[in-house]
Specification:
Mean pLDDT: 90
CATH class of the largest domain: Mainly Alpha
Organism: Oreochromis niloticus (Nile tilapia)
CATH superfamily of the largest domain: Fatty acid synthase, domain 2
Enzyme class: hydrolase
Strand content: 5-15%
CATH topology of the largest domain: Protein Yjbj, Chain: A
GO biological process, one term: monocarboxylic acid metabolic process
Radius of gyration: 19 Å
Shape: globular
Largest sheet: 3 strands, parallel
EC number: 3.1.2.14
Distance between the termini: 22 Å
CATH architecture of the largest domain: Orthogonal Bundle
Low-confidence stretches: none
Number of helices: 8
GO molecular function: fatty acyl-[ACP] hydrolase activity
Length: 185
C-alpha cells in the first residue's frame, strides 16, 4: 500500500494493487488489544509479547511460560536469542542465523505496522484477498479492513478459504492465482 502511494506521489503509474489479508489497519487491530495489557513505555513488555507470538507459530509452549522466560531478559537481542533456542530445540533443521533475523524482523515489522498511518489517500482500485476465517479483531475492521477510508477507487474484496496463515495454501492459493490472473487478463 505505502509503496504504491509513494509511487503515485512521484507520478509513477500503479496499475494493480493486491493486498493479501491485510491493510493499513490490520496489524494495529491486533497490537492495540495487546498494548492495552502493557505498561506504557515499557519496551521489554512489547518485545516479549511480540516474541511470544513469534515462538508460538513454531512451538506449543504455553504463553505464560514464555512470558516468564523472556520478560526478565536484558534486551531484545537476549530475548531473540532465547526465542531461537526454544524454536530450534523443536525444529533442528531451521538455520539459527535466519531464524534470529526473522524473529528480530517480526518485532520491528509489528512495531512499524502498529505506528503506520497513511499520509495520503491511494488513488486507484484495490483488490483485497482476505481469509474466510477471521478473528474478532479482523471482524471489527469491517469487510474491507477499512481500506475504503484510505482509497478513492473501488475496493473489491475476495474471500478465500482458510485463515490468515493457511489461505495461501492448497485451494486458497489456486483461488488467489485465478483472481490475479483474471484481473490481469
Amino acid at each position: 500500500f505505502e509503496m504504491c502511494s509513494q509511487l503515485q506521489t512521484q507520478n509513477q503509474p500503479v496499475e494493480y494493487l493486491f493486498l493479501f489479508d491485510g491493510s493499513h489497519s490490520y496489524v494495529a487491530a491486533y497490537t492495540q488489544s495487546y498494548r492495552a495489557k502493557l505498561t506504557p513505555g515499557n519496551e521489554s513488555e512489547a518485545e516479549t509479547e511480540a516474541l511470544c507470538a513469534f515462538i508460538q507459530q513454531f512451538t506449543g509452549i504455553e504463553y505464560n511460560k514464555l512470558l516468564e522466560t523472556l520478560l526478565p531478559l536484558s534486551d531484545l537481542n537476549a530475548r531473540v536469542s532465547v526465542a531461537v533456542d526454544l524454536i530450534t530445540s523443536a525444529h533442528r533443521d531451521i538455520d539459527r542465523d535466519s531464524l534470529h533475523f526473522a524473529a528480530s524482523a517480526f518485532y520491528y515489522k509489528l512495531k512499524a505496522a502498529d505506528a503506520y498511518v497513511p499520509s495520503a489517500k491511494y488513488h486507484g482500485s484495490v483488490k483485497l484477498l482476505r481469509a474466510k476465517t477471521s478473528s474478532e479483531y479482523e471482524q471489527n475492521l469491517g469487510a474491507d479492513y477499512k481500506l475504503s477510508e484510505v482509497c478513492d477507487g473501488e475496493v473489491s474484496v475476495h474471500v478465500i478459504e482458510g485463515d490468515h496463515r493457511t489461505f495461501l495454501e492448497g485451494e486458497g492459493a489456486e483461488s488467489i492465482k485465478n483472481i490475479i490472473h483474471s484481473s490481469l487478463a
